Amino acid sequence: MLLQWRIFIGRDCGIPDNMAVSDGVHLLVPHASCASPACAEALRGLALPNLQRLLKRLAVEHADAGDAGSLSPPHERALARAWGLQAADGLVPLGALQVLQSGGDPGDAGWAWITPAHLLVGRDRIDMAPPPALQLDAEDSRTLLAAMQPFFAEDGITLAYDAPLRWLARGEMFRTLPTASLDRVVGRPIAPWVPAGDAGRPLRRLQQEMQMLLYTLPLNDARERGGLLPVNSFWASGSGALPSAPRPTRPAGLQVTPYLRDAALAADWPAWAAAWQELDARDGARLLGALEAGQEVRLTLCGEAGSRTWSSRAAGAWQRLAGWLGRSTPAQWVEGL
Questions:
Q1: Contact 292, 57 (CB under 8 A)
Q2: How many Å apart are CA 239 and CA 236, to the nearest integer?
Q3: What span, in angstroms and rounded, lies between the C-alpha atoms of 104 and 85?
Q4: Which of 167, 169, 269, 272 has the highest count of CB atoms within 10 angstroms of its CB?
Q5: How many whole angstroms separate alpha carbon 258 and alpha carbon 32?
Q6: Main-chain dihedrals φ then ψ at residue 76, nearest 5 degrees
Q7: pTM of the model
Q8: What value does the mean pLDDT of the chain take?
């Protein structure tokens, strides 16, 4: 699941080597909290000394109240803001941004991410299994893409391989069709997140066609014989188009950390707490060092509904003094998110 954000993070999950000191740093942390009581309990036991020291010297610059039922989770909305994009819910154009960052020209076309998926069909609900559970390798992924491409082409959609669990899709359908982030759907019933209404009908039909195709695909029979989950559907996310002018440019110093994501989506709260500690030891120390060196520092923590951004620029002299003397806890940082 870490590949979902790999295009937006610097080399080795840090700041690129050629980034100027004056650019500053901005750490964006998805899945910093959730509504689960077990998550809240894990949060209460966390000791994050570097981040605690850091936040004493920063002040809140921006708050996004948000809604846990939105198609675009807070970290995708925060990413859009960092890129200077005014994106509607479900239309944060992550697919188009990936093409741009990879050196391609997304034009003004609609793009999306396509994720091969395994749907767990129950008596009264259909859930999505975590995509890594497929253990899908490049060879099987490319075979699936080749089998599915002709059906997508009938709807004017071209597919391109990017990674085993992610393909890039280009098509007019995705220019204005809001889609739910994969992070909203993994491990949950898919019904509330499937594109609804007339606008979503072509995608729903395509999903049904692919389910019939994949049910009879020899590759899936071979996968099941080998003890692997079959790929029985797909999920579209990251839809939308980029403005032709001005073309967005990557925000200087931005890092989206993947540390907490997999553990949060799997509801593995001990692993999530351990990931927080790794983040504190690595990135918390790095941001403290940047602040001491006189760089501008931002930290954005994202929950299920909203996000909160702290910055050194927003902290006046009195706030910095109060920060040195004040106290805060991880639970307070993410309260209400």
A1: no
A2: 8
A3: 19
A4: 272
A5: 11
A6: -75, -35
A7: 0.88
A8: 88
